[in-house]
Amino acid sequence: MTDFLAALLLGIIEGITEFLPISSTGHLLIAGHWLGQRSDLFNIAIQAGAILAVVLIYRDRLVQLAMAFLRPGRAPEAVHGQPPRDYAWKLTVAFLVTAAGGLLVKALGWELPHDLEPIAWALILGGVWMVLAEQLAARRARKLGERSAISWTTAVLVGVAQVVAGVFPGTSRSGATIFVALLAGTTNRAAATEFAFLVGIPTMFAATFYELVAVLRSGEAANEDWGMLAVAFVASAITAFIAVKWLLRYIQTHRFTVFSVYRVALGVALLLWLPAAT
Predict the structure, then answer these.
(1) Residue 78 DSSP SS3
(2) 180 vs 53, 128, 176, 224, CA distance in Å?
(3) 20 to 30 Å CA-CA from 226: which of 8, 65, 172, 179?
(4) How far is CA 198 from the centre of its chain?
């Protein structure tokens, strides 16, 4: 397989998996065993493509939230039943919790090995947890009614969930944040997903910028194939745009069960394959 085709496939994998609750990190590490490991700058580029797609999808919401601060005297449309200014502050709190937790994790050197076996177990356990969490959230929704608002507690817990997902490859940042929001009281799947995706924008931008600075300081960028990088970036952006649009429509009428089944099946397949591979 040519390097060009491998880069294209990795960009597509990143775009599909970044915002679906199936773990982009886990899929890229798995794919890397067959397609070859890529540079840090390459991984930054495909992640940036996925972020760009979500920014485009939520551009109207982002403008609405920005206007809540720039024109505080106006009475803007509510965001899931709450003032846009409050909603924006809750996004900020979730991001700050993530940033503080991420810096702490870096300072303490907490990082799990990126081996396939722990990723397989993370996929399986995450899939089982998703089923249980959605059942609990559905039971709460039947008892309390549908709730779309994001509480301050939910915002803090979503920030913590992002930190945990960053430490454990295979967990899925989007999956962790969506289901934490559902369990914390936002019983509307669409509202929980939107908050998780919106808080992911500054989080991923910050992580991308942090990694980019490190790469530029190391001089690694001088040896990069920029044409291949551009192809992977575009592939990631296009596929992420399609994947997120599809997911937002899908969850209007479906639960997340299909993703749980996929995670468990993939994790079991990896565990069965590993002994043969060694």
Answers:
(1) coil
(2) 24, 14, 6, 38
(3) 172
(4) 10
CA distance 146 to 158: 19
Tokens of 70: 């720039």
Cα(102)–Cα(100) distance, rounded to whole angstroms? Answer: 5
pLDDT reading at 54 higher than 90: yes
Q: What's the structural domain count of the chain?
A: 1
75-85: average pLDDT: 82
* Residue closest to 46 by CA, chosen among 13, 80, 91: 13
Residue in the structure block whose two tokens are 């775009």:
15
For the chain, the straight-line distance linking the first and the last C-alpha, in angstroms and rounded, comes to 23
| Contact (CB, 8 A) for 111 and 175 | no
pLDDT digits (tens, 9 = 90+) for 218-247: 777 677 777 888 899 999 999 999 999 999
At residue 179, φ and ψ (nearest 5 deg) are: -75, -30
Residue range of the domain that includes 178: 3-277
The values of phi and psi at residue 25, to 5°, are -60, -45
Greater pLDDT, 72 or 86: 86
Burial class of residue 168, CB neighbours in 10 A (0-12, 13-18, 19+): buried
Mean pLDDT of 148-165: 94
Q: Looking at residues 107-126, what average pLDDT do you find?
A: 83
Measure the CA–CA gap between 278 and 276, rounded to whole angstroms: 5
